[in-house]
Amino acid sequence: MKHPVDAHVGKRVRHRRWMMGMTQQQLGDLVGIKFQQIQKYETGMNRISASRLWDIAKSLEVPISYFFEGLDAESIEEAGMDADSSARGDLLADKEALELVRSYYAIPENQRRRLFDLARVLSEAA
Asked: pTM, whole model, 2 decimals?
């Protein structure tokens, strides 16, 4: 049975890897493990050890705290949420949303701001 924290950390690994345009194979090569192990980490099926999380954070160019952002252990326990139900509520679990975010941040900052303003106006009109 997956623990919600393992699922959350795995999901954050997947999001960051995807945002960097990195495959599971590439991350596995950087960390020194097979891509199948990366798959198990990303689904929360296997728990990531502290030293392995350190290596993954270094490879993905984020602090270790990145993997725990958005995790509120008390609210997960109080809601009785399992790993699957917390993933369903995450907008970035959608590949299309992730691709949109990655594309958005690839746009130069001044143009990105104009696009953001346009999106806000269009969403308010709906």
From this structure: 0.65
